[in-house]
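Progress against Task 2.4 (sequence-to-structure conversion) is shown through the following example record, which the project officer requested during the mid-term review.
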Amino acid sequence: MNIGNEAWFGRTALPLDLLAANVFRAVENRTAVARAVNTGISGFIDPFGRIVAVVERDGEMLFVDGFATTDLPVRGTTTFYTRFGDLFATSNVALVTVVILLAIAKSVAVRLAGSGRRWT
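Structure tokens generated for the chain above:
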């Protein structure tokens, strides 16, 4: 469930961006999302990121009153991201940091070897 107040964004593209962000949350956690906002885009997103239903009137989705209903699946499984969060991203940052430090150390060693001094 995502409840929000998007009134201060007015008729801009930001409510669409926030809806898209909810699509990513649904996919990365493989869970359905019910989105209820006062002036933005209210609707439902399935675990695969498909927008199932939105509240709209005459093709307009912003600043409309109304409601929508739909059936959403309840899943009992979790994804890697749900269990471990940003572990994959953090591991990549750590690996890149180690590679950069090794490259710097090698560069220093090559310079010292070229100057005839020893690195101790």
